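Task: fold both queries, return tokens.
Query 1:
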Amino acid sequence: MISPEADAEFIASMEEVLDTYEALYNSEYPVLCMDEQPVQLRKEVRQPIPATRKQARRVDYEYERCGTASVFLFTEPLSGWREVRVRDHRTKADWAIEMERLLTTRYRSTRKVSSSATI
């Protein structure tokens, strides 16, 4: 739903994005969506108690923090392809390395890759 306060430029941009997703798939001009998210790495400190016939599996929610990582998600919504990459950091350089990897492998023979920064 677009709010009444949205201006014409915003609406035009949103319609352009929606038109992109409605287009037929073309392998020479793929649409690539990407997103990234920082995550905490955790380790259980107590073993869960297995489920029985009368009791569901029980898990203690205490954990040990084991650092962080960054999850990068790349997807082509028109082809159904997706890939997840995990990196130690979430920097501009990490993002650039992932994009270079995609452009020199999966997309090396495409004419142009259209992209969306969020999914």
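Query 1 returned. Query 2:
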Amino acid sequence: MARPAGVIGFSCAEDVTAAIAAWRRWLEMEKRVSRHTLTAYTADLSGFLEFLTGYHGRPPALNDLSAARLMDFRAWLARQAADGLGTASRARALSGIRNFFRWLDRSGRMHNAAVGLIRAPKLPDRLPKPLTVADAAALLPNAEAWANQPWVGKRDRALFTLLYGCGLRIDEALSLDRRDMPADDTLVVTGKGSKQRMVPVLPVVRDALADYVAACPYALPADGPLFVGVRGGRLRAAIAQKQMREIRHLMGLPDTATPHALRHSFATHLLADGSDLRAIQDLLGHASLSSTQRYTEVDADQMLGVYDNAHPRARRKPAED
């Protein structure tokens, strides 16, 4: 048996080990998935193979994977649920396993008919939770005012202004280098799958970035990170999320006020102001319009809330004695 170091944490049959290595290369080089996706898919596959090892009493080879039955996959999902994995985690794990099995089929290594028959755990219908326009506007100066160090406050304000003003994902913003800082009214962003898109940059975003760069105590070379932590290294998403937690606590905002909520707010506020849905799709970097269409439901919910609160015919009549 061979053990692919640093990938699967237990012994596998040699043909499975070779297949995993080739699959990971395909994901990384051809599909150009993010590092997080590659790590998550590999961990999910590791858990599935480890389950099969215990389930059948030996590490599986490709022939065993080909012969895996529908009940084997269901038993694995049931074990995950019993171990406390949530619905979203189980659905993502199944997606990773299906990806591996489909790749095995397309590459001619083996075929398994059962994997296509598994029903994914049903995910709850969760709509994005944007901030109100007033809360988003108030958050940006507060991000600067309540920081422990003035330059950190300017950094946080610049980051959150960029997320809200351009609709970036947190990883997209933190992956920017100093040379990517916009000098005019556009910014080239590298999103999921290394796909690039161009987004407009408002003057308020450029001003916030310039203010932060001028105050930053560290040299910011062109090929180095734009956003840095207190030790000068590239700022991590966990730190930005922690900063947001502290700000929302001080402002009394709900737990849904996260860095990613600023991206939701960008899209929802544009839609409410009459922007075209396909234009918003391009700005967000969504591959599918269906992903962007979620914001129409958010906007409808908000409009109904305004109607219920403001329209005299929508107000509840007091109960009669």
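Both queries returned. Flag for query 2: Residues 1-6, 303-307, 309-321 have pLDDT under 50 and may be disordered.
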